[in-house]
Amino acid sequence: MNQAIIKILVIDDHETVLNGTIDALEQQYPNAVIDRAKTKQEATLQLNSFNYDLAIVDLVIPESYEQLPQSEVGIELLRTLFQKYPNLNIVVQSIEPERLILLKSAIDEHQGGFCVANKSLTLQQMLTRVNLALQGECWTPRELRPRSLELREDWLTAIAFKFEEGLDDPTIAKKMHRSESTVRHYWTKIRDAIEVYPETGKDLKIQTLLKLIEIGIISY
Predict the structure, then answer these.
(1) Structure pTM?
(2) Which CATH architecture has domain 148-214?
(3) In terms of CATH, what superfamily is 3-144?
């Protein structure tokens, strides 16, 4: 993605964390436009006013400046993001990422990148999650992933078409009566389920194939 057009909204009510996150983002993406919000109300106003490439959301935030931060408010904000902005790339920061289990179905269906960053991560690790999300990739805690041998039926169908019949994504989409973007979305979810993520110098398709063979989803 061209850094010149990246627009990021950082949502966190802790001034120190907010400033630290923004400083790290500005170093990583010097040409990005980075906005901030400290409450759900503020974030909603910003999201309604601008088209963002990425939202970084602290799970525990207040509804307004007069109220205390609560994880329920962050959960409700994420529900809104999933409903209104299905292609928005999202990074969730939390010390209790397991609370996202309440949104598992919505996370599975979300078309944009979606990564979870525990607040115990280093800034560099957090930036890695940001980069993954901007690529449309997913990284979720184990509690949110399907077990590798229990992948969804439509994912298994896509795997068979790709690796057993050698079809490309447009052809897979036609055979499955899905859009190409939906098929691409399948691959991000499949890779997250089997814990395969983009790495510099490595072919993502080959890494996916090798892992699927290793865990017994397909045989060669």
Answers:
(1) 0.84
(2) Orthogonal Bundle (1.10)
(3) Response regulator (3.40.50.2300)
